[in-house]
Amino acid sequence: VDLSVSTLPGKFLLAPYANQKGDMGITGKVVKEDGKPVPGAYVMVYTRKDRMGRPAFLSKPTNQDGEYAIYPTEPGTYYVAARTDYGDLPRKGEPYGTYDKDPEHKVEVKEKTVLTGIDITMSRFTRDLTKCAEH
Known about the structure:
Order of helices and strands: EEEEEEEEEH
Structural class: mainly beta
Strand content: 25-35%
Radius of gyration: 15 Å
Largest sheet: 9 strands, mixed
Distance between the termini: 43 Å
């Protein structure tokens, strides 16, 4: 068996990125509060409403225009967030954002449908979750 090894940027998760293409998906932009794009951010979709634990799917880093695409393998309800890092809980002061056109930050992905305009505005994370991490 001939195996090749390569270095991955960032903190590696099991299966770090969602499918690269598909007939159902979530696309949009990640921007700062001033509307400028955030290149290099990760968009995560969770099946849990609290967006804790390992995301169901993770985007590749956003491009120079802040654009991302995620292609889930199953239809369903997903809760959408973005960070400039991944792994562990968000840290106080870190750039963080959620999809805010729904009060629960959720989208409904249906078969053979690609959702567009699922945009995320990042600001500084204000909560201190270090106490959560200790338990």
